[in-house]
Amino acid sequence: MARAVRFHELGGPEVLRLEDVEVGVPGPGELLIRVDAIGLNRAEALFRGGNYIEKVKEFPARLGAEAAGVVEVVGAGVTGFEPGQAVSVVPAFSMNAYGVYAERAIVPAAAVVHRPASLDAVGGAAVWMPYPTAYGALVEVGGMRAGDTVVLTAASSSVGLAAIRCTGPRQSGRPRRHAHRVDEIVEAHRYMEAGSQVGKIVVTVDH
After folding, report:
1. Claim to verify: residue 54 and residue 77 sit in the same structural domain
2. In the prediction, which pLDDT does 137 show?
3. Taking the CA of residue 111 as centre, how many other CA atoms within 13 Å lie in the half-sphere pointing to its CB?
């Protein structure tokens, strides 16, 4: 058993429930991860409220697509991973199928990357949604090249801060990270939806 955040109806942060659930064993192509930190994203708030491009298919529903932790069990056919390795989970799967708001979570191995020793769990849970979003918008969609002048709006958001890094100017100061414990998930979602945060919101998991 492990604690996991689920919701049984659409709505605001108040519908989130911290529940004991059976974790199970990873199937072919999957990994079981001990989750140490979870990155919160607005896409998850939209999914929880029924306003995301992907709609909830059944209840109780899971949540979460970005996390960092340690591999516990390797499913059949998975290569390149072994128990004890530090990893990050990237947002590359349906939340109808998987969710990382939990103490332990089964995830597709294709959505897991090795986490270097220089990156702690909080950082490892915070970088995967903002940076690909910023890079894709600036370079792949916007065609940004060396020497271009770039104007960034909402520059204090997690994607905005990642965009600043992608454009290459010198930085002054350090982005703030807002950490909450997993049992504070409702308050963390309320804080995210208030729109006043600077940087990424990360939930830590005590084991």
Report:
1. yes
2. 84
3. 27
Give the three-state DSSP class for 64: coil
How many Cβ atoms sit within 10 Å of the Cβ of residue 141?
9
Angle, helices 185-194/42-49, rounded to nearest 10 degrees? 100
List of the chain residues with pLDDT < 70: 169-183, 195-200, 207
Q: Which of 78, 68, 167 is nearest to 126 (CA)?
A: 68
Is 150 found in the same domain as 77? no
Exposure of 62 in the CB half-sphere (CA atoms within 13 A): 24
Whether residue 136 sits in one domain with residue 85: no
Q: Count other C-beta atoms under 10 Å from residue 48's C-beta.
A: 23
Say whether pTM exceeds 0.85: no
**Whether residues 57 and 143 fall in one domain:** no
Structure tokens at 127: 């970088």
User: What amino acid occupies position 177?
Assistant: R
121 and 91, same structural domain?
Answer: yes
**Do residue 142 and residue 87 come from a single domain?**
no
The domain in which residue 152 lies consists of 130-167
